[in-house]
Structure formats: structure tokens, C-alpha cells
Write a structure and sequence with these properties.
This protein is of the alpha/beta class. It contains 18 helices and nine strands. The relative contact order is 0.10.
Amino acid sequence: MVKLQENSSKKVRVPGVIAEDRPQPHNHDAERAVLAAMLREPSPCVDMAIELLGNNADVFYSHAHREIFKAIEGIFNDTELKVDLISLAHQLTKRDSLEDIGGEIYLAELYNTIATTANLESWCGIVREFAVLRSMINVCTESLFKCYDENADAATLVDQIETDIFNVRNISEATEIVRLQESLDTAFQHIQDLINGKIPIGIPTGLPDLNKIIGGFKSGEMFVLAARPSIGKTSLALNFIRNIAMKPLENGKYRPIILFSLEMTAEQITRRLICTEADIPESRFFDGSFQHHEMPRLTSAVSELKGAEIYIDPTGGLTIAELRAKARRFKMLHNIEMIVIDYLQLMKADGRIDNRQQEVAEISSGIKKLAKELNIPVLVMAQLNREVEKTAGAAARPKLSHLRESGAIEQDADVVAFLHRDRDASKSMDNKVDYEGVDAELIIEKNRNGQTGIVPLKFFPHRMEFVNTRYSDDDRPGS
């Protein structure tokens, strides 16, 4: 619980909003009722109150109620004592707070506040709800104070404020203990739906063989796609985005996805998506070979893409703090279901870190924490070092040890996949390459929650698209 700052020499005055004589939201009667229930029926009411409110006395607005709650909790934790009016008065006396709370007379009045403890859960809900509101007020007030600090780093401050606000959102979500028998039917139905294909394990990738190995992009997981330069990391990432964002759900809506592109502009990304959708090489716009009869395919592609909820952030040199701040905001505003980052080594850590491996490790750890915090999958591109080519040539398959600059990426990632192909094969001027494709592999080298394996792919250079070799071109989303 965030507490309001006291004795600050730089307090901000906001008329009508922050005023010392204006009480914060609370319900005095609900607080009294909770404490009365704990006094009347210590077992099970004390345990229930602690479970629903936590062991933090700050959920009570009244200073007297906070002292009484702490005293009851102290007595309850002492196996030799029982909670009653006498032991409570004694405990408060030992704490030098009996007179502060109103003495034994107030305790007697408190005991007679309620006739039954049946509504304890409801009273705790009311107390907790007002505690959340007060926490929000305190976070916002402290944020105002911090913003007046001329020495504060703006980016770090914004990230800290958003973290505090996000934590307040989670205060109201009390974890419930579920009896196994109560969840059996729900769990069995979920298993049946998975078996019958009614619900996906994760977000389908658009590559059936990949789905079989990893079960799709799963919530809270970090999926690392790594390759040497110019192999097609960005193209495959855009293929994933297109496969996911352009496939409508059963309710007719589309999955919102945000792409953080640290290397390409929003216009470049958009052009690639249009060309892939229209099956027209981007080079035709620049070498004069574009034919006017192809215009309907272009306009159709634009029309199809307008239905997708794809957001592009082309900020270069993005820091992990900026990434978290933007991702949280888009989660709240657009309920994004997936994050794509292109690519990890172009990001920066917060603050100055001289050791590059340590900096990459901090970035990698931050991305994994973000996936868990927002409970959505994060797909992040990563570069491989040159060692793979030096030791065994361009045709060598990459390994986990080839991840550039940090072993922490391997540690943090739930899935690590290497994109591998003959880079020289796509340089051929033969039109046959455009239509038959180039052989490629997506090597699943690490899968924390499943098997590893190799997904055979075909790469079509003219439209910058990878497809599953064993499946027809007709399976392309949007076709």
C-alpha cells in the first residue's frame, strides 16, 4: 500500500483535489463491522479477514481501526491467548494505544456494532474497495511531488508512476483458494475443448508444423527468433503478425498486435505488409516494372489490411523502461494480445551500463517480466554472432551458444527458434526462385514447456514470405 507523503516542504496545492481537510474515501461503518466480527467470532472471522484484506492494517482508514486490527492480529498469532475484549484491551495497553483508540468504552461499542457475522465477506469487500481508491489517490499525489523534482529523470519517473498505477489495479484482485472438486468439471471441459480444437492452446502462428511443436504463442511467454543478418527475421516476424492479426476470431473481431520496430520506419513496415498481401515484389515500384493491371491487387491488399488492428512503434534506441510504459498503455487502451520487438540488440537498458553483456541481460530480463506482467506473448528478434559462419561456414546450423552478446537471452526465453537458410540461393536472378521458393528451416532449439524440432519452410523472396513446406500456398491468410 502506498502511503501519502507527510511533512513535505514542497507539497503541491491543487484546489478542490488535494486538501488537508478533505477526507479520503472510506466507509467507517464497514470498518467497524469487520473488526466487530473478528471480536465476536475470532475463529473463523480473523482468518477470513486476513485472507480477504491481507495482513496490512493500512486497508483501514481510521487510525483507531488500524491499531485495533494490528492488536487482534497479534493476539491471534499468539497460541496462548484468545481474542476477546479483555485480551484486546490488554494488548492495546501494551502498545500504548488504548486511550488513543477511545478506551475500553469504544471497544465495548465496537463489539455491539453487529448482530451477526454472516456478511463479513461483503464488509471486507467494501473496505478493500475504498483502500484501492485511497491507494490511487496516494500514488497520484506522490507522482505530483516527484514531478516537481528537477533532478528526476523523466523516462524513469514515468515508468515508475505507471508501475505504481498498475500495482494499484492488482490490489483489488484477491486470490481465491479453489477446492479441487469445484474445478474438476471446468478443467475437464477445457481439456475436451482442446482435444476437439474448439480453443487454441496459444495464438496460432499461421505455420501448422510450428503450432504442433510449441502450441502457438502462449500468454506470458517470451519467444526469441534469432538468425544471422539478412536471413529474414523481420520478414518472418511480419508473416506471423499478418497470419495472426488478419485472421478474424469467432466474434468477427481481430487480435490487436503492436510491433516495436527499432530498425525500420512505419512506412517501410507497411509497404512490406502490402506487398506480401498483394503478392507483388516491392522492387517493381522502383525499377519501373509495375503493371497497371496489378493495381486491383494492391487496392485489395490495402482494403484487407485496414481491417487488422496492427500498431507500429518505430522508435529507435528504445529503452526497456520506454517499452514497458508503452506496452502497458496499449494494453489498457487497446487490450493488445501480442507484442513483437525487432530487435533485441538494438534496445538500450535503463541508465548507464558499461558492460554490453550485462546490458543485454537486463533488457532480456525486462522483456520476460513484461510478458508475465501483461500475460501476453512477446516475440522478440535477436541477432546471432558471426561465430557460426567462422567455424563451419554459412551453411552451418546455428546453436544456442551463437546467440549474440548474452547467454541471458537463452535463460529468459521460453522458446528459442533459429531461422536458417542458404542466403545465397535467393540472390539468383532466375524467376524460378520467385515461384518455387528457397528451402529454409525454423529450428526450435529450446522449448521450456514442450518438445524441440525443425519446421521445414519455403521462402519466397519476391513477396518476402515464409510458408510451411508441407502446406499449400492456398493456406495463406487472406487468400
